[in-house]
Amino acid sequence: KVASQLIRGESVTAEWYDSVSIYFSDICGFTAMSAESTPMEVVDLLNDLYTTFDSIIENFDVYKVETIGDAYMVVSGLPDRNGILHAREIARMSLSLLKATLTFRIRHRPKDRLKIRIGIHTGSVCAGVVGLKMPRYCLFGDTVNTASRMESNGFPLKIHVSPQCKDVLDTFGTFELELRGNVEMKGKGSVKTYWLHGEKTLSDSPGVSLNIL
Questions:
Q1: Per-residue H/E/C for 102-133
Q2: Helices then strands, each counted (H, E), the chain
Q3: pLDDT, tens digit only, all 213 positions of the chain
Q4: Where is the Guanylate cyclase domain (predicted)?
Q5: Which pTM was predicted?
C-alpha cells in the first residue's frame, strides 16, 4: 500500500497507531564473522538470509520496515490496522523465522551455525515517509526503542518478549511463554520479560506445545 502510493507520486500522510507489534533481529557474532570474510561473502550471506526471511514473512500480516546490515525490522498493525492480531502475527512470524535459521547454511562457512537474536514488543507508534530523493517509510516513538532493547538484551536462538506483548499474546491462549525475570535495560530500568517457545495448535493434546527448540 505504502509502496504503491509512493510509486504513483502520492504523498503518504504521517499517522498515529495506538497498538502495533514490532520485531527486531540481528545475527550474533556478525561483526567478527564479517572481519573474517570477504565483502562479497558477507553480501551473499545477507542476501541468502534476507531472501529466506522475505519469503517467509509473506505468509503473515506484517510489513518489513527495513534492513540495516544484519538487523531486520518488521511490524504488524500498520499501515492497515488489525485489532490485536498484530501480536499474534509477529509471534508466529518470529517462530517461523527462528525455525528457518536452524536449517540455514552459510555458503562460505557451511560448518558454522547461524544464530540470530530476536526481540518483540507491542505499543504505539507514529509512522510516516521521510525524505524526498530516497523516501523511506519510518516508525517513530518509544515503542521502536523498546523493541530494539528487547532484541539487544536477548539471547541467541531465543525470542525475547516484552510484558506488553506478552499480555496481548495471553489473550489468544495458545502461546507458550516462559518468565525470564527482571532485566536491566538502558533507559528503561528493570523490566520483567519473557521467552516465547512455541504455539499450541488445535491438534495438540492439552498441555502440549509445538516448541521449535
A1: HHCECCCCCCCECCEEEEEEEEEEEEEEECCC
A2: 6, 9
A3: 666 776 777 777 789 999 999 999 999 999 999 999 999 999 999 999 999 999 999 999 999 998 888 899 999 999 899 999 999 999 999 999 999 999 999 889 888 889 999 999 999 999 988 877 777 888 999 999 999 999 999 999 999 999 999 999 999 999 999 999 999 998 889 999 999 999 997 655 444 445 555
A4: 21-151
A5: 0.89
